[in-house]
Design goal:
The chain contains 6 helices and no strands. The protein has 158 residues and is an all-alpha fold. The longest helix is centred in the middle third of the chain and has 24 residues. The relative contact order is 0.13.
Length: 158
């Protein structure tokens, strides 16, 4: 497993546990540390894990509003914990992360892969739909770009 994909998996599992246990502000760092030891013992560079965690936390109010706007038929608390946190990671990378480091299509593809791995049967399609909608709003010229509505085969992260 590529180190960035593993890093995202650790972030997703950590956000899930934090969200599931009541989002206690002082518990997230401990959860991340525990999950790094449990799921990523060979992970050499932890910078990417902490970059996503800090970015998601810093932008969570804006990210959650975007989720509510992009999936109006699904109140935030009714979205499964996995899907909600995969969306938070995907939206952070799509909107706030360095686009040269993580191109938008890679951010979308990685979120879809996380959803397929950790979520339910329809999670990948749900994540793709929400992130695709946001991507088209942010990049109007992308509305006619092939691969934005569907999964982008062959696009992998470093």
């Amino acid at each position: 497993m590529a180190s960035r994909h593993l890093s995202r998996s650790i972030v997703m599992q950590s956000l899930y546990e934090w969200d599931f246990n009541g989002k206690k502000p002082d518990s997230l760092d401990k959860i991340v540390e525990k999950n790094i030891q449990e799921f990523g013992p060979g992970l050499e560079d932890l910078t990417f894990v902490w970059q996503i965690i800090k970015g998601v936390m810093e932008h969570m109010p804006q990210i959650d509003k975007i989720i509510e706007k992009s999936a109006p038929e699904w109140p935030l608390e009714q979205i499964t914990i996995v899907d909600r946190n995969v969306l938070r990671i995907g939206l952070y990378e799509l909107l706030y992360a360095n686009k040269e480091e993580v191109p938008p299509k890679v951010a979308i593809n990685e979120a879809i892969e996380l959803a397929k791995t950790f979520g339910g049967e329809s999670s990948g399609k749900f994540i793709n739909g929400v992130l695709g909608t946001v991507y088209k709003e942010v990049n109007p010229e992308a509305a006619s770009t092939p691969g934005v509505d569907g999964e982008t085969p062959g696009v992998k992260d470093k």
